[in-house]
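Quick one:
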Amino acid sequence: MAKYDLSTTTLGALLEDPEVVAIMEKHAPGITSNPMLGMAKGMPAAQAVGMAGNIIGSDQAAAIQDEISAL
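Output:
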């Protein structure tokens, strides 16, 4: 069973996990310090990462979701 359900876990909750932060930084360096991230912390992670695809690219967003889902 996956550690996180991206459809219900908020982005803010994910950012409290150093392993998740490392995954995000690996695929999109600097993303976890982006000021726009603060507005998305209350969103379900899948929604926030999906929206980030416009900023970081859909391939990177998909890779982040895949790796977090595999935890």
